[in-house]
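Lecture notes, unit on binding sites. The following record was shown on slide 14. It pairs a sequence with 2-amino-3-ketobutyric acid.
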Amino acid sequence: MSGKFATANQPLSGKVAVVTGASSGIGRSIAIHLSNAGAKVCIAARNVGKLEELKSEIEKNNGTAAFFQCDVTVREQVMQLIFFAEKNLGPVDIMVNNAGVMMYSKMSNVMMDDWDKTIDVNCKGVTNGIGAVIPGMIKRKRGHIVNTSSDAGLQGFPGLAVYSGTKFFVEGVSQALRHEMVEHGIKVTCIQPGDVKTNILSHTTDLEAQKQYDGSSKCKILDPDDIGRAVAYVVSQPDHVSINQLLIEPKEAPI
Ligand SMILES: NC(=O)C1=CN([C@@H]2O[C@H](COP(=O)(O)OP(=O)(O)OC[C@H]3O[C@@H](n4cnc5c(N)ncnc54)[C@H](OP(=O)(O)O)[C@@H]3O)[C@@H](O)[C@H]2O)C=CC1
Ligand SMILES: CC(=O)[C@H](N)C(=O)O
């Protein structure tokens, strides 16, 4: 099925979505679910090989995808990402600021390089994404910004103090932005996953912190698909409905 008219199976037909952090895990799954729902997707990350693979997979499934190499901490690259997406696919309707890193880190071990990196990617990556799409969305009087927060944006987790702080930042920015955007017809959603089976743990250098605090092996955690499906649901609501935040947890591990 194709064409620009939304149908029950493809409610996002005719829409353009940009997904950062699409080379892996949650972002990859969000891109697939948005494509399955009919959106044309522009996928971004630093790892071009993985983006190429995902583009092929989407196209094999009759979807439309373009990819752009982008470090979300570099403002100019994020601006270029949106320019590229609009030139190749059309005006951006849905911006998913998903790229992020998480490193277990005990504050007492003072791993300040890890803290800086976490703040740069998780905070600046999101403000760069918002800044790049918002002028166009305001001009068109429509759009949906989806920020991948975390359950750590609602509660500080030991061993993840700085990470939790970055996700509180995402929540605070999103909440204020949502109010400012009402007059422009733009929706803002925070997705708040609990533990999801991805590569996110692979960047931790403070193994003492991970050993002490990571409990993700204690129960059946979420699959990236569980989050991709939720994002497709959130952005497929009727125009007057806004899902402002969505907390998605493993059944056995509520906060
Ligand atoms: N896994 C989990 O349990 C949870 C994860 N989250 C959040 O979900 C999001 C995705 O994480 P997840 O899929 O788990 O982790 P992954 O490590 O699997 O994916 C992270 C993605 O972010 C991208 N990325 C990292 N740094 C940069 C950068 N500087 N510029 C551009 N892209 C970057 C990576 O791409 P590349 O390296 O190619 O640039 C990759 O595509 C994050 O925001 C994370 O905080 C929230 C709650 C739970
Ligand atoms: C606090 C957490 O570990 C959460 N699963 C996340 O990765 O954001």
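Take-home: The longest helix spans residues 112-140.
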